[in-house]
Amino acid sequence: MKNAYPHWQSGLLYALLAYSIWGLLPVVFKWMGELSVWVILVHRVVWTTVFTGLLILLARSWPALKALCIPRNLRWLALSSLLIGCNWLLFVWAVDQSRILETSLGYYITPLMNVLLGMLFLGEKIRGAEWLALALAFAGTGWLVLSHGTLPWISLSLAITFGFYGLVRKHLAVNALHGLFLETLFMLPFALLALPWVDGNSAHGFLQGSWQERNQLMLLGVITTIPLTAFAAATRRLPLATVGMVQYLAPTLSLLLAVFVYGEPFTPAHKVSFVLIWAGLVIYSFSLWRRNRPVVEMLE
Question: How far is Cα 58 from Cα 56, in angstroms, rounded to an integer?
């Protein structure tokens, strides 16, 4: 049988690159420890717009970008920019507050959140195994609530915002680079309005900070754009089932960083919760693999 994915080796490398960068983002934000959450968020928007714009310019794809700027696309992209902006803000704040473990939990929940959103908004059918996976994820979240007496709102908020972000982008025939540029372009006026206040009230902003801090801020555009474009390249070269397996690399790296590098407490309640959610992910991944097995076998 002819291989439907002749470039699967490079696709796997792109996927590993994307999810490794996403999983190691807490290291970058911890490295920027002197910078406030708002400084990081505002400059992330500014420099991502600049960097993606330069890539589009170098690729000479402005005509394709212009063709995408129809009212329907722009309305959806305005919504997706709001969702990803909230997701970025919450993630950076959680890292700053030494709550990386909760971000890891959120991105473990996200694939199962996608299953639920697909059922509710796209009419997708959930099979028996996927119902069990969802039940285990809810059980894991509920166990944390019962054990700690508080809702893991950071984890749930990250899963909900990123899940709805994926749902919105599913409606759009927009490639990753063009979509990210337009999303940050929507956020750019607000970022530019906030920039004088954010930098003016920080001794570590772009104007008052050192050259190292300026380079850190400009790096935000690179670390935002590269994994997304690598992810887009991976999805063109790999079946969905394979990408679905690799996506757990990011929260796993964040979990290891939280516990073994930054010393966040991994309580018995966390252990039970994570085991339940991991069990759900195993069941979900196996179900996804079986559904896509004919396609996966083409790689062999």
Answer: 5
Alpha helices in the chain (DSSP H): 8-31, 37-58, 62-68, 71-96, 100-122, 128-148, 153-170, 176-200, 211-237, 240-246, 249-256, 268-291, 293-296
34 three-class SS: coil
- Who contacts 75 (Cβ-Cβ below 8 Å, separation ≥6)? none
| Region of 149 on the Ramachandran plot (φ > 0 left; ψ -120 to 50 alpha; else beta) | left
Say if CB 29 and CB 95 are below 8 A apart: yes
Angle at 62 between CA 61 and CA 64, to 5 degrees: 70
Task: Give the count of beta carbons closer than 10 Å to the beta carbon of residue 94.
Answer: 23
pLDDT (0 to 100) of residue 115: 80
**Residue closest to 300 by CA, chosen among 9, 38, 37:** 9
Phi, psi of 282 (to 5 degrees): -60, -45
Enter the pTM of the model. Answer: 0.87
Q: What is the pLDDT of residues 205-251, one digit of tens each?
A: 665 666 777 888 889 999 999 998 888 888 778 766 677 778 888 99
How far from 80 is each of 73, 76, 167, 225, CA to CA, in Å?
Answer: 10, 6, 9, 16
pLDDT in tens, 158-208: 999 999 998 888 878 788 899 999 999 999 999 999 988 887 766 556 656
- Measured in residues, the chain has a length of 300
Nearest by Cα to 155 from 206, 210, 101, 89: 101
Tokens of 169: 């982008």
For the chain, what is the radius of gyration of the CA atoms? 20
Would you say 148 and 271 are in contact if contact means Cβ atoms under 8 Å apart?
no
